[in-house]
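Researcher: First entry.
Model:
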Amino acid sequence: VVSAHFWSRLGGAFQRLFHRMCYLPHASFLYVDDLLMFQETSIIGLSASVIAILCMLLRLPISWKKCELGPTIVWIGWEFHLAAGFIVLPTPKRAKILELINKLLQSSHCSKKSLERFLGLALWVTQLWPSMRTWLHYLYRDLHSIPASQFSVDPGSWETVCNCVSDQLVFTQKPPFSAIPVDGQLIQVRHQPVKTKADLHTCALSDKRVWLRIRDPNSSKRKLSQSSTRILKMYLRWLKNLSPVKSMWPKPQWSGLCVADAFATGQQGGIGGVINFPNGQCCWFSLPLCHSDFVALQIPMHDNLQKDIASLETLAQIAFVYITIQHFPGSRIPLKIPMLSDNTTAESLSNKLFSTNMPIALFLEKLSLLLSMSHIDADISHIPGHSNDYADALSRWDGNGDPPHLFCSMIVFS
């Protein structure tokens, strides 16, 4: 971490110096300590020579193997075809991640290092395909789920063992004549779950050795769940059939606008929003919800839906995408749809399309699927709550009586 901070700041200082030296029209980009520069073909050779000579005079360490000049270069792992305007996933990188997936699928048990290597590569690949990133939360959960092992102690030393654990049942020191690791988390005593130190004095003991189930944070082993195995197989199919080419040109911005809001109190909630189309047409939606609706779908929501208000806000974004794409030919067109939300958590996570927290990770999965099928991007921005009157009123409408703000004359989607 220190190295990245140091070289990124040094790189930034030298990049500003290069800007001064190459004052002719150009564009320069810096990623930590990797520099990329665009300039006209007729003069970029001269600029590159000046930069190289300056680096040699200042004794700036340069990786000359990475230095490239031409219409196609490899930068920060990606293959850039600048003249054609697209980026390619290099074949060696693709083969490497496929090899890691096959290695992880060989057994339900794997090493922590192999899982971390796959997650690092998967996060890198999904920079260009962000709708595939949301599925990684299952593997992150397995990465941080430390497996437990069995240890035994003599019943005569039980009091000594109890004195070695903290109130949170973490071993602060190693009990004498045992292999119990320091910082291990005690979770079971003779198959009896324990949560506090007081539970240790209520455990039924005998003259036989006491078996303890302990999680060792230093363990290098991890166990893959069925969900993680399913996701790995999905990534295997995806990468084998993926077109490795991605356009460098951003998708055009849709000229319409979407404003959403969610409401929750106790076991009652709702979502609502307004969609303003470029032709002047306006659509709205309002959907009352209750906790039993999510129970029926086996979505692990809290009894108090207010604790999951970010998930409801994300559900409103899903409704926006679904309604908007109905107006596109074939429900599939490359556009970026601007949306407004007054919930900062939903705004951030919907833009990143990634979270390891439940249940919002499940809602992001559905949003990612919808974005992939429609070939659009969602650009969620913040709107202050006091300026979100229409969507707020629609989210609180229970469906009885006239809709708020005279919305009754407009088109309704159910």
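Researcher: Second entry.
Model:
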Amino acid sequence: ADLCSNFAAYWRSTFPFTDCIDHIWFVGVLLFFITKAILYVYTISRIKGKSFQIESDIWLEIFKNIRKEQPKKDVLLVGSNDTQSPFTVGIRQKYIVIPAEEIDFILRHEYCHALRNDVARKVIILVFSCLNWFNPLYFLLKENLSAWIEIACDEAVTENFDERQRKKYASLIIKS
């Protein structure tokens, strides 16, 4: 302990601005803490004000099953138009925030498959796969056909999107 106090005394006498560094550090700690606290309060208020609770959806069913496995009552599943990726926030009341636009994109994509009758196309591909089980060239073609169906669906979904929506949709495809 004596060695440390001698070192501290030597340090302070050699570098007279040491007290100033302590004050700068403390002010930085306070500013950092205040900034993070304000950001937290702002985020919670945005979630409470602009998010919507997901009340019926496959997301909610999965969420309920997870909660049955590990019960915790103070967690809400909400959708938000203000976020681009899922996150969890909250100390007392916790929120799992899902991007609403992602839900919208996913549903648009799957609905487009239904509109274009892509399931029937995939059944036909399956029938041809059964008939051509021995043909390696057909299996190459089959992979291309499935990709073409997905690409055609993506093109139909994004047809009326603006550039920002197309970029978000593309990032969702990459994440998927």
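Model: Note on the second entry: Residues 1 and 75 are 48 Å apart (CA to CA).
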